[in-house]
Amino acid sequence: MRLPAFVFLRSQPRRVRVVAITVLVAAAATVPSFASAPTLSFATIVLIYVGLAVSLDLVWGYTGILSLGHAAFFGLGAYTVGLAARGGAPPQLAVLAPLAFFGGIVAGIVIGTFLFAGRRVMTIIYVAIATLALSFIAERSLAVWHYVGASTGISGLPLPRLLGWRIVTPNDFYLLALGFAVLSYAVCRAVVSSPLRMVLTGIRVNEQRLQFLGYRTARFKVTVFAVSGGIAAVSGAIYAAVLGFASPTFFGIALSTLAMIWVLVGGPGTLLGPALGVVLVQYGSRVLSDRLLGWWQVALGVLLLLVVLFFRHGLAGLLRREAVLELPGEGRAR
Amino acid sequence: MSLQSIFAILSFTSILVLLTLGLGVIAGMMRIFNLAHGEFVLLGAATVYVASVAGAPVWVGILLAPVVLAVFGAIVERTIVARLYGRPLSAILATWALALIIRGVVLQLLGQTTRSVPYPIRGSVSVFGASIATWRLIIVMTTVVVAVLFLIALYHSSLGLKARAVLENAELATVSGLPIRRLYTGVFALGSALAGLAGAMIVPLSSLYSELGVTYLVRSFLALMVGGIGTFEGAVAGAGIVGGMESASSFYIEPVASGILAFGVSVLIMRFRPQGIRGRTT
Fold it and tell me: In Å, how far is A65's CA from the nearest CA of chain B?
């Protein structure tokens, strides 16, 4: 598709992006002034999901590592908040969010080292299946752990605080979510604006060549996996704090799949694309699930199938100058 | 361990062997990892249920399931998978999308309830003095027969020779004039039929519910990776290890823990032996 407006926009990618984000954030900040209560809580959830989407884009879209179980990090963060409440700790997000971040980083380092360290480079298929199996293990273990409510999970979590700010009204929740979404986007953007991005792209496109150049690619993969895991965990922590509950399904394959759909619909490897992908898919889900009821799950599957078969670069693909022919990591899968 | 428990382990492992063989022959030949394989199991189980609701005897449904799934598999190969050769990651996502669709449709038609299907053959037989449920015995025997037929077809038929040629070197096979597209469709249909047969045979044991396929998908994938892609022995050994570990340990520890144990150990084996126990090094 070659619309003239896109041609103009493409000539100034960075400036356009800064303007676009400023406008988006400014527009998002005005939402509480006109939105109804259900719309506001919907928008809050969407903004929290943005963190999960950009974190997955970092590992998959930029580095080409497809994690089929990325929701496990989200669940880890949610249970950090849940366990803290269960243990009677105050719901202080200034402590819990960094704790979840740290937990996600540690889990990312452990799993990443297991998956990526060593001389043998694991195929993308192996990593996909292993992450799927690990998230299955996590979900099932929590579903039988009675201390945290087994399969029903923990509910009735106390209202969170951020330092002296008591987060009580839907408005507060929305602002918290907006702040988190902007922060998580900024962290991911900082990573991909640094020289690190070249290494990550190199790993995605041709890891072996990068190794011949002397880069220890495993370390970079572990690092990016850990950072991504940390962001996803904070996303889960805030989700649990806002909704007041955490359940084993937070670890599950359904949420991981949803995250992949957001990234794919928005366009992998663009950060802003997946963030908009969340808005679009969740909005569609909200509008259509009323009419389609359970058939919405089927429609989501059809959407994923169509995107993979025909629009592999999502929304952002419309803005790309050169046609990128492959999904991130496809080259390494062969 | 009693003979009954050994047969429980054997029948569970047998089902996994059928699944892993189907998954493995597709992965080995076409480099396609079919994440909808578990949902093919579900469809096989659903076929039996639909047939029994329609008034047919259960065994008719069980014979029908592989046929239905072979046709379904051939259609899927022609419409979706054929577009994705050489793009394994897209294939993973596309087949996963297909799995979501199938699971969603079955869930909508069935609802959240589980449906049970009567055993086609009731009663038990006595083996070395222990009484074994006849159906479990039939599952094990059917698997052995299918596996032997599979081996014979692979090594002693012209079709098997062609299949092995494609497995060895797809390009060379193509330039030698083998009808590679038709072989691919046939192999995909065969793999799907095996999954359908497995689903049809487990449904009397475990009843029908929409999540039935997912658990088997992860197990059979782990079995495939543990055993190694592209060999017959690998698929059988992998299924034996994963299935045996899970079902044998479930007699001593909680079922959830045995699942976790089997998955965890499989991931470890895969990590340190990426080509599998008997895999081809590619």
Answer: 11
Strand partners, A165: A162
ipTM at complex level: 0.84
Q: Nearest 5°: phi and psi at A285?
A: -60, -40
> Residue A34, by phi and psi: left (phi above 0), alpha (psi -120 to 50) or beta?
alpha
Q: What is the DSSP string of A209-274?
A: HHHHTT--HHHHHHHHHHHHHHHHHHHHHHHHHHHTEE-GGGGSHHHHHHHHHHHHHH-TT-SHHH
Mutate to test the interface with B, among A111, A309, A310 (most CBs of B within 10 A): A309
Say if CB A80 and CB A99 are below 8 A apart. Answer: yes
Gap between the Cα atoms of B43 and B69, Å rounded: 7
B 103-142 near A (Cβ less than 8 A): 103-105, 107-108
* B249-261 pLDDT, tens digit each: 888 888 778 888 8
Is the CATH code 3.30.70 the one for domain A4-333?
A: no
CB contact under 8 A, A334 and B225: no
Q: Is B68 on the interface with A (CB under 8 A)?
A: no
| B87 contact partners, CB below 8 Å, separation of at least 6 | A326, A327, A330
φ and ψ of A192, to 5 deg: -85, -5
What pLDDT digit, counting tens, does each position of A197-242 carry? 889 988 888 888 888 898 888 899 999 999 999 999 999 999 999 9
Q: Where are the beta strands (DSSP E) in chain B?
A: 124-127, 130-133
The residue ranges of every structural domain in chain B are: 3-211
Residue position matching structure tokens 């009843």: B207
Cβ neighbours of A304 in B, within 8 Å: 93-94, 96-97, 100
